[in-house]
Amino acid sequence: xxxxxxxxxxxxxxxxxxxxxxxxxxxxxxxxxxxxxxxxxxxxxxxxxxxxxxxxxxxxxxxxxxxxxxxxxxxxxxxxxxxxxxxxxxxxxxxxxxxxxxxxxxxxxxxxxx
Amino acid sequence: xxxxxxxxxxxxxxxxxxxxxxxxxxxxxxxxxxxxxxxxxxxxxxxxxxxxxxxxxxxxxxxxxxxxxxxxxxxxxxxxxxxxxxxxxxxxxxxxxxxxxxxxxxxxxxxx
Lengths: 114, 112
Description:
The structure holds 2 protein chains of 2 kinds. By secondary structure, chain A is mostly beta strands. Chain A is 0% helix and 54% strand. In chain A, the strands form 2 sheets. In chain A, strands 2, 4, 5, 9, 10 and 11 form a 6-stranded mixed beta sheet that branches. Chain B starts with a strand and ends with a strand.
């Protein structure tokens, strides 16, 4: 069965520091993997996605993620955090059965300190 | 610009009331979803629809129903609201597998 585990419900970094948000998945089919961001009182916005092809995926706002099949991981990184990156981040994997359903992780709230 | 619109952002309803949450998308997408978001639980799928008048249960359908009479509109119905349905509800739409899923801004429902 498909599942997503995000390690760390809260992550705190200093402005300018590396951001690393961890995501591990399990999937019975070749996975499609997604990272979404949610700013306060808003819906979810796609940061990046992996479907096929290059395993290093670049997204918006300077974020990137690398699909590592051997580690069943899809960690999200950004070299230098900005205050505006403070938000909640969700990793997701496609669910079986088609229709583009997604299974989400519990989310990681990122705090950025001056 | 792509748009998924949830008409009600904030609602307060009484226990036992019937509640309608409306969602409209302008992208001619086949698939539409209703998720519920709770702290520490992420997003959980309530129902989805893959065509007009077609619907499938998600992971937590109990206490909810849905309606899709037109392709662009997908409604979530709480037949008799209860306090444990206090939550943030997110509507989403998408095309085929691997395509981006677009979310509305969410509806905060409080049941008192």
